[in-house]
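At your convenience, could you comment on the folded chain following this short note?
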Amino acid sequence: MKESITQVTKKNVIVRDWSLRTQKAKGDSLKEGYIFGLLGHVTSNARQNNLEYLTKIWK
């Protein structure tokens, strides 16, 4: 049985609140030292990271 938009919206609010409370309680969500390893896998190009491109990603 499909859920109504109201039921889905209420569940989303509950999950978002839980997520925010958990994040505040635990602090940083990344393990210690994880960022160091992450930097080797991430590259950044300033020309690619313009606002128009980012808004397309976020949609």
